[in-house]
Fold:
Amino acid sequence: MALARAIPERGSFPASCPHCRQPMDLLHSAWCGCAASHPSKICPSCWKCACSHFDYENLLCWEDPPAELRRYGFERFFVPYAGRHVRR
Ligand SMILES: [Zn+2]
Ligand SMILES: [Zn+2]
Structure:
């Protein structure tokens, strides 16, 4: 029997980890403690935050966050979270 996938509660923001590509929820995962230009969220699968991603300091990989994320402290959005490739 197919266990119904839990309906995402309001306030979830599905993304994928830039390192291991496992799904993660940007609103429910923990902020990292790095002193990077922008803190990132810790992946529940590989326990890495996005700060160590090779593109993290690449300005082309950032855009304005959706309002939902902005409400939760994201000043910028690291595009690889969305699984999209960034054009160079
Ligand atoms: Zn970090
Ligand atoms: Zn990961």
The longest strand covers residues 14-16. The mean pLDDT is 88.
